[in-house]
Amino acid sequence: GPYVKHLANVAVTSFANINRLMDEGNKARTVAATDINETSSRSHAVFTIILTQRKKDSLTGLVAGKVSKISLVDLAGKERAKDTGAEGKRLQEGANINKLLTTLGIVTHALASAKKKGDFVPYGDSILTWLLKENLGGNSRTSMIASSSPAQINNEERLSNVRYADRAKQIMCEAVVNEGPNTK
């Protein structure tokens, strides 16, 4: 798959470990001031927890297991350069954020309007959609929360956000239990 800067897989055995890693990840996120937000998030964040349960059958001695995956995703908000006053590096960050959000919208639209399972969905068009492929249209149950500012200046973004959420509601996934012998 594509290269993701600072992507790490870490084995944990307790909620305290998970909490510590989430704190570290949040502290590592890039934030910067823009004309409309003092602490504007300059990146998306994906935190995935893979839970593995193994059970040994006392009669056969075989080990079977179940695997669950939980992805917590925090997307940076879409920005209009003229509103943020961004220049240079901040302008480029905003452009990258918007590009990934646009690609997510295209993938969501493709999934919502897919007539059959084999229809092409452009997951590979961005690292974000590639990482979230299973969550968006695979073996999953997905919940999304769309939030918007009530400020008058954000009317256009709010409408876009509501339209995105409406399309996302139309995505149908069938989740099945991931279990089998020697599940890793």
From TrEMBL:
Keywords: ATP-binding, Nucleotide-binding
Lineage: Eukaryota, Metazoa, Porifera, Demospongiae, Heteroscleromorpha
Native species: Amphimedon queenslandica (Sponge)
Record's protein name: Kinesin motor domain-containing protein
Family of the protein in this entry: Belongs to the TRAFAC class myosin-kinesin ATPase superfamily. Kinesin family.
GO molecular function, one term: ATP binding
Keyword ATP-binding: yes
GO biological process: microtubule-based movement
Any Pfam family hit: Kinesin
Boundaries of every Kinesin motor domain copy: 1-171
Source taxon at top rank: Eukaryota
